[in-house]
Amino acid sequence: MTIGTHPLSGNPLQTRADVQRAAGDLFKPLLPYFSPSGARVRLSAMAAHFDQAAAELEGFARPLWGIAPLVAGGGRFEHWDLYRRGLVCGTDPEHPDYWGDITDIDQRQVELAAIGFTLRIAREHIWDPLDDVQKKQVAAYLLAGRERDYVNSNWKFFRILVDIGLIHCGIEPGAEKREIYLDDIDGFVMENGWYRDGPIRSADHYIPFAFHYYGLIHAALSGDAARAARYRERAAEFAGAIRHWYAADGSALPFGRSLTYRFAHAGFWGALAFAGVEALPWGQIKGYYLRNLRWWARQPMFERDGVLSVGYCYPNLLVSEGYNSAGSPYWAMKAFLPLALPQDHPFWSAEEEAPDDGETPVPLREAGMVMQKLPAHTVALSSGQHYARWRGTAEKYGKFAYSTRYGFSIEANDRHFPSAACDNALVFSRDGLHFRMREDNEAVLIAGDRLYAKWRVFEDVSVETWLVPAGDWHIRLHEVTTPYRLDVAEGGFAIAKPEFRAWTEEVSGACAQVATAADISVIIGNDSRTPCVLSPLSNTNVMAARTLVPQLRDTLEAGTTRLACAVLAQPAQAGEVPPPQPEFPEIDDLRELFASTGRSVPVFEK
């Protein structure tokens, strides 16, 4: 159900003209929120960890990721006077809407990258009409920002993008610091085209639009032939892996932080075209791109006035991080990069093609995942990853399975174990009230299409977990060693909860199953745990505001206990029953397999 204005409503998103229209329609709801000077976009009183001036700069700058390609490719944008006025006022220390002085590791550095990019591909609209005094002032602000230190992560690309814009405007900021950061970025490279985001090895949905996206822009615009070749080669290799994160309906895997940027990840496919990288046939690249935009156009992700909300499929602050302001979601405008290309570019002229994903399951060692491309959704079996302690980190990186249809849930109350969603997670409580789940790993291995992880939920409680794909199902096996009694719960996939109790529950033996008119979710234990169906707290799941989760619960005694379950979720078909339960492998056999063929997952080296 859509409430209020939906800027993408009625747009078929099949042609270049449709995408041009989408870029303009997404921008229009922001116009009433520009300050009179044009320098700030004031959307909400909600706060990020940085100051409000930087948040309002974010609202000003992020739409440029879409606007600049739109006009570079010949599209119309009627508000350049607003942006020129805002650029001048925002960089003027004497103006009330001044964006503020830039310090080391400052959010302003992030947003200046969009301005640098705009100077490079739309200079005649935002730079050339300024007078000499204004140009000097704007350049001084950009130069001051790029001289500061940046976060040791994908942020290092932001200095490079500022420099690309300044150089195009006849201002050489000096190559030394730029080259240092370009070398540092090369140090983040893993195998098979993957990057790690800084010193902590996370490989999430951020990588396509926070590394490859910028690298491909650099390849297309910098004139640095040697690095351009490396960026193109990495992106082509990476495309062969990241395509497995997409389902046939265009949805992409929600996994990791910064989900509020939504269809920014479609920018990867557009960036391939922008840099001329035919990593897959152009029709397939176009298909991944347009199907994803169409999927997002069906989601109720807007506020009543048509402004993009903070959240994922719907407005939801629980999914956000401390660095998300009300303007943050407009990084989604990165998806419009291919609008800079002409209509006759093969990306636009090719016929959209269905994916050719080959066999499933597919192991992705760098991400510590095994991808199951199922008929109605894609599932990632995940060994878990390490990341900084943003809100919901354990849920965003540490669950056993993630789905393009069912997403995952973030716990809203870790002081009430009885209501824990624990979808696709094994959750423990020492007092029956507070609870913990996997946050990190001590060891991770992959053997073919099977995963192993050793982790601790408490310092003195160790868990070993094996994940095994099994047709439409997947199997989880755990060995838990604890010196005291523990309550334990494990959940299957969370499915959308309909109105008026329009669902059925089957709880018998070792099986918990819940079915609606749209979906069915099942968990079957091969141990002594008790099955149940839980309705978690509202707004915890990233896909659906209310959900139902089948679970297995029990109390473990001190010592070592083995747990096993099979898990399935799929759309409900009239009269259809779930496929037969798979056979459970033996833990001892899996130990032998991993001892002989297991390879460490590099994403967990700290």
TrEMBL record:
It comes from the Bacteria. It holds the Pfam family DUF2264. Residues 15-353, 361-574 form the DUF2264 domain. InterPro entries: DUF2264_C (IPR049237), DUF2264_N (IPR049349), UCP014753 (IPR016624). This is DUF2264 domain-containing protein.
